[in-house]
């Protein structure tokens, strides 16, 4: 059984869900993969950089007891003291620059650790440089959890679609707006539907990232950057949110057998990639019509396959944590990379 030291940078909803998932899966990781994981580093703005080479007790971390850790001054000292084999970068999104996540991931790769993130900012602003650095160091930089939680999207292309070129994609990427539309279809006003989503812990107190289309725009940006090698900026993505949509319009569409959803698109056009986000009516014959009412779905058109569709239901910190775990296992379980 191989002991692997993990450092968690960010211990919010996803960080805690990841710690819980490790606890739930510990016997399976040991028996099936011969791996024993230890959380030897945990960090956040409030906590600072805490390390414990012997490993923290995850139950205590989840109870908010961080007293076993030694405080480090900066990230390199933290990685070193924690003898980090992998960094889980799960801090807040900075859609404008991707920092400080990018610098933290760079430090981890330079330290000799693998880097796995759920942070879209690190992907849209750092994908090429971080992937290159990981390759130079014989490590990996993976980010499955960034889009559709743990649903395989990036790994699907990386592992199972060799020599395929993605021509266009169209998808419902933001499940919060899907939940709002689903509640409006059931009779709620926009404000009431938003309140339901907030009370369920799906929408933020400040819901603007979801309902103004920013979250979907950053996700399509990440998909286009990685899967289409797009060189675009977030401001290049035409964006319309859902604030102006009336309950009457949503219900009229539903009565006609259609759904309104926030749809993101990316397409190769004249040698470049053009992306957009905006509400669209989805008719019954539309490839996106089969998605779960409050979940996500993407329709891909490749030069080797037609109408590849991937969909999944409710997403949240637990499914995002699974995306992190799947990346981790794909790294440590790949024989050529697991030294
Ligand atoms: N929630 C989801 O379902 C989901 C789904 C897909 C992707 N993601 C992504 O996953 C990441 C984490 O999401 P979350 O829901 O766990 O957020 P969250 O609950 O707000 O937690 C964020 C954590 O990051 C820490 N943090 C923020 N800035 C930091 C910095 N500069 N240095 C060190 N620590 C910092 C915070 O520390 P303090 O609390 O001490 O400030 C907190 O522990 C985000 O990038 C998000 O976009 C989340």
| Largest sheet features | 7 strands, mixed
Q: Measure the end-to-end span.
A: 13 Å
Instruction: Catalogue the unreliable spans.
Output: none
Q: Calculate Rg over CA atoms.
A: 20 Å
How are the strands ordered across the major sheet?
4-3-2-1-5-6-7
**Quick check: average pLDDT?**
95
Helical region count?
12
Helix/strand layout:
Blueprint: E1 2-9, H1 13-33, E2 35-44, E3 48-51, H2 58-62, E4 70-72, H3 75-81, E5 86-89, H4 101-111, E6 114-117, H5 120-137, E7 141-142, H6 154-160, E8 166-172, H7 175-185, H8 190-199, H9 208-211, H10 214-227, E9 238-239, H11 247-255, E10 259-269, E11 272-282, E12 296-302, E13 308-312, H12 317-332
Parallel strand pairs: 1-2, 1-5, 5-6, 6-7, 9-11
Antiparallel strand pairs: 2-3, 3-4, 8-10, 8-12, 10-11, 12-13
The chain binds NADP nicotinamide-adenine-dinucleotide phosphate.
